[in-house]
Amino acid sequence: MEGAMNVNVGILGHVGGREVRPSRSTMLDVNSTSGITLDLGFSSFLLPLHDDASSDAAQITLVDCPGHASLIKTVIGGAHIIDMALLVIDVVKGIQMQTIESMVLAELSTPHVLVVLNKVDLLPDATRPAQIAAMTKTIRDFLSTSPTLHAVPIVPVSSGDADGTRPPLGMPALLAAMRSNLHVPARSADGPLVYAVDHCFPLRGKGTVLTGTVLSGQLRVNDTIALPMLGVEKKVKSLQMFHASVDKAIQGDRVAIRVHGLDASAMERGLAITPHSLSFSSNLVLRVHQIRFFSLPCASGTKVHVTVGHTTVMAKATYFYHKAHVASTTTSTTASTSPPPTFDPSVEYSYLAVLDPLTSSDQAEISTPRVVFVLLQLDREVLCPPRSHVVCSRLDTDVNKHVCRIAFHGRVDAVIENVATSVRIGKVKERRGVVDKTLDDPAVVIIKEIFRKETNWDVFRGLRVQNVRTKCVGQLDGPFGKAGKVRAVFPKDDVAVPGDVVVLRFTKILFQDKHDRSLGQSPTIYNDQEGSATTFKEDKGSTGGNKSEGGSTSAALLASVECEKKCRTGLVERLKGETATNGSNPSVIAAGLFATAEEAAEFIGAQVATDAAEVGYVEALFGKAGKVRVVFPDGGTFAKVGQTLRLFEK
């Protein structure tokens, strides 16, 4: 029907449970023996908007996403082009892990979802109503955890079989539910063209055909489009929508584009755009929205799979936050009415070592999360339209472990060209030394073991240090000798004695240029609200109280200097044992956790954690200077020399 508004409806669900298409998709990639979708499939039909014979109808484009766990990258790519979703669940098998991942993708894509309870014809006639009711209740309980899908319709159906021995059931009810819940989105032809290409094939004697969906802007016959992945521009020779020629396509339309002189084998998926309207990006900043089903910690410095449209690449993730956002979301008792914070390149943020998974108690407060951002440094450049929706996953997780692999998502807040000048993330670092002796002036003390003899002293000049025993703060004054000892000046009323532990805490800006290695100290760095790194769970609510708790092994944010009796900080001095093929080591030598061997001996067997939340224990002393050997029995550690270790006292 000419002029009918197109609505893209995604079909999501576990493999084998999704034979529910009201109109069979013409799929380019289907396993011929099993009938399992291996790639995105597309079909369309007209859905009347009224029960009467009026001419109003919507064109429904079904986007059939593969259901197998190993094909999730394709599913994530397909989810970004849909306006509405059918979440298909096998009534016999019930909720499976792919059901959970499909529900997550449906949530991220659209609030307009129908749950289709499929294969009801496999249930015995006598018990079918009771079994459908029981499964409907199970699904409703499962959906109750969703902020947007808890009240969506659930429609029992059966698609039957190809030879007609099992007729379809419930299809009229499904179409009626689609009609009553249909969301026809507002479409705009404004702005540059962004067209998501999902297939490309040659047409003998006529050129090459690209098929895909217009994400923004419009497209006309004779327009010139750019294919940045190939570095070419092509003129549009013709356009078709489901075998009907058209003159133009706008946002939301599924359309085929015919061009000349393009090698179809060189193009698979990607974007076609208005020439010169987008450039490639390799560094993205987005606000993190965690997935409540993801159960693994996300450590800064580790890799994640980043999906932007149909493109999935690996990226190094660095998490950070602003202290003002922590305070505002952990002390307020009502939801904030101010606009959500966005990334500001002029602001100095705080480094977050580990983003802990959401706990069950967090889920009740998911509506007002603490604000965390992530810097994604991509392994290769991608085309990223403004405010693109990015999905980050751990697709290296074994699909047989039945865990959700989708970690977090968010809209792109900023595209960064130069990380060194455009992102300011301060990481609090700590060094520990021991008072070696005092001079004639009791306010001047000599500190040892806080620096190596080859350390560049100049960057530390004038920084403040704290005597852990007396809590008094002094200032580094200058080097003393050539063995790494330093001179510090304390208030005259502070009586330091040899053996006192002295801590130097400072903020280092990550990604700084080598010629700008300045260190900073906030006025409160030794106050009760800042200090050694300890756990701060990802707060998913503002219902009162700071939820910071010391003592967890997944060290993350700054806490009180009073955690001296809870947390000790040291460094990996060297790696021990044979390095495994995956790069891990069975043990390390830790320095700085203890001042003396006698002190260290009291902590044999104590737990030690890395910044990546790897947990080991103190196995034995190493020498007489307070160094210890730390063993990581559960798969070793990927920590490197110089990285932080934390020991949490009982």
UniProtKB/TrEMBL annotation:
Residue ranges constituting the Selenocysteine-specific elongation factor C-terminal RIFT domain according to the UniProt record: 423-493, 565-635
Region called Disordered, residue ranges: 521-552
Ranges where the Selenocysteine-specific elongation factor 3rd domain occurs: 285-410
InterPro entries assigned to the protein according to its UniProt record, in alphabetical order: eEFSec_C, eEFSec_III, EF-Tu_GTPase, EFTu-like_2, P-loop_NTPase, T_Tr_GTP-bd_dom, Transl_B-barrel_sf
Domain (Translation elongation factor EFTu-like): residue spans on this chain: 207-270
GO function term, MF aspect, one: GTP binding
Limits of the Tr-type G domain: 31-178
GO biological process entries: selenocysteine incorporation
Comp. bias regions, Polar residues: 521-535
One Pfam assignment: GTP_EFTU_D2
Protein name: Elongation factor Tu, chloroplastic
